[in-house]
Amino acid sequence: MTAAAADVLVIKSPDDLPTFCAFARRDSDPSVVTWIDFWAVEPCDSGEADYLRGQRYADEAIWHVRATGQRVFIECVLIYMAIKLREDDRCACGLEHGFIDRIAGHFPGAIDNALARTLRQCPQALN
Predict the structure, then answer these.
(1) In this predicted model, which residue has the larger pLDDT, 118 or 110?
(2) What number of other Cβ atoms are within 10 A of residue 45's Cβ?
(3) Number of other residues whose CB lies within 10 A of the CB of residue 113
(4) In this prediction, what percent of the chain has a pLDDT beyond 70?
(5) What string of H, E and C letters represents the secondary structure of 31-91?
(6) Which pTM value belongs to this model?
(7) CA–CA separation, 78 vs 98, rounded Å?
(8) Are 41 and 81 in contact (CB under 8 A)?
(9) What is the distance between the alpha carbons of residues 49 and 108, in angstroms, rounded to a whole number?
(10) DSSP secondary structure letter of residue 36
(11) 77-98, pLDDT tens digit by residue?
């Protein structure tokens, strides 16, 4: 199965990614990015401050999608967000809620698309 153009994320420069993303470079060649963390943030102690910060991150993501035309970026962020929550064994907090609330208003199908993408990769989850 080949991925449609809308399913492929093209990053011309990691420096163009929103501030909530982080990347690792290859030690032997710093010009090569080996890994991108699409949700490289941690909550603070204030639920309200986290919620507002999550909305600011969503605004960055919305701007990035409008600038690049790549809606799949939102799905990458949502998938990484879920991975981080599971790895850290924590529930979503104001940070994630703020992000998702803002994103849902601009990209209502993004959460469904991220879930469908995940289930395509792990079909046993459907059983």
Answers:
(1) 110
(2) 6
(3) 18
(4) 86
(5) CCEEEEECCCCCCCCCHHHHHHHHHHHHHHHHHHHHHHCCCHHHHHHHHHHHHHHHHCCCC
(6) 0.80
(7) 13
(8) no
(9) 24
(10) E
(11) 998 898 888 888 888 899 999 9
